[in-house]
Task: inverse folding
């Protein structure tokens, strides 16, 4: 297991252990193709069990400190959650045709209910995950989810995106501060200044790209007006705008996402003493995400397993932890107070709604 020197904070005294991913595309392809075929044959019903098989493979091949994670969900739990969501969508579709005004009344209610779905989903996914025979847990409340999702989205929209770093901080603090490993709490205290620095950098990249696009468009307008006749320049301009602005937006969004992950994770601790770390290369992350989509589309989906394994390996290998103390002793102490949760505990606490 490779160790990396600590450089945040720069005290030179800590060493981090990187996680690793031991899966490969050929192995996962076998799982993926069977999942696809059985999902088609069963008209989508098997997709719940497909998710279980997929997650067990990825969790089981994610290794940290020489131990892998485990995923304990049951296909039935995921299927029930999806049936609830499917039933809701059917009702919404019927209402949109029979009573459009009733539909308008339901959407505000859904905006209030959605944070509850998020809270339950986070709790479910935490409780079906274990590491070294100790389960994770999530203790977030509806009020915290409402602030993180509804109010976060509201302030982002009202501020035309200028307050999105604040919304990001609310969301990730809600997730991390309510996450537990056994009975040991996670926490993160990301600096708002660092989030705004990442946000401003992403905006600067977008503006620079738009300026370059504008200059190219001016050239194209002149070329079109001289060689294609009146009006063709404006058509070329719109084509250029449509073709290039969306990729620019995607690129800057990926850049910002990677930067935020680094900031949030590198400010996070477990049990207030064990430091987490993320050091994603932002350009590399954007390249992997974009090229994965392109390769998947060009191969009509057949390279999807390769793309999924490629991204998982990149994310895993750029995630690390510094354990404060002797590793065996630390985990023995955690195991003694936060041992594995019984199967009955899972059955009591519900479904994965799949949002």
Result:
């Amino acid at each position: 297991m490779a160790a990396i020197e600590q450089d945040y904070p720069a005290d030179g005294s800590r060493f981090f252990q990187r996680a690793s991913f031991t899966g490969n595309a050929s192995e996962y392809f076998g799982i993926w193709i069977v999942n696809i075929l059985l999902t088609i044959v069963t008209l989508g019903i098997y997709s719940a069990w497909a998710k279980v098989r997929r997650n067990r493979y990825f969790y089981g091949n994610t290794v940290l400190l020489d131990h892998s994670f485990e995923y304990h969900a049951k296909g039935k739990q995921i299927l029930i959650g999806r049936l609830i969501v499917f039933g809701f969508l059917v009702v919404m579709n019927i209402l949109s045709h029979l009573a459009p005004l009733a539909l308008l009344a339901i959407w505000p209610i859904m905006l209030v209910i959605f944070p509850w779905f998020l809270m339950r989903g986070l709790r479910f996914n935490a409780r079906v995950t274990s590491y070294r025979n100790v389960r994770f847990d999530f203790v977030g409340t509806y009020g915290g989810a409402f602030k993180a999702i509804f109010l976060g989205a509201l302030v982002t929209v009202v501020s035309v995106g200028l307050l999105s770093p604040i919304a990001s901080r609310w969301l990730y603090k809600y997730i991390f501060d309510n996450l537990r490993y056994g009975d040991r709490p996670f926490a993160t205290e990301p600096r708002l200044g660092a989030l705004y620095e990442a946000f401003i950098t992403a905006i600067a990249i977008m503006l620079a790209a738009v300026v370059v696009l504008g200059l190219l468009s001016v050239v194209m307008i002149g070329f079109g007006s001289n060689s294609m006749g009146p009006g063709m320049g404006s058509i070329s301009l719109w084509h250029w705008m449509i073709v290039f602005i969306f990729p620019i937006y995607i690129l800057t969004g990926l850049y910002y996402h990677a930067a935020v992950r680094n900031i949030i994770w590198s400010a996070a601790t477990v049990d207030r003493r064990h430091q987490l770390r993320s050091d994603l290369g932002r350009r590399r992350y954007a390249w992997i995400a974009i090229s994965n989509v392109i390769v998947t589309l060009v191969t009509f989906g057949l390279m999807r397993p390769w793309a999924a394994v490629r991204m998982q390996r990149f994310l895993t290998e750029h995630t690390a932890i510094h354990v404060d103390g002797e590793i065996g002793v630390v985990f023995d102490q955690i195991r003694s107070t936060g041992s594995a949760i019984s199967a009955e505990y899972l059955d009591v606490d519900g479904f994965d709604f799949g949002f």
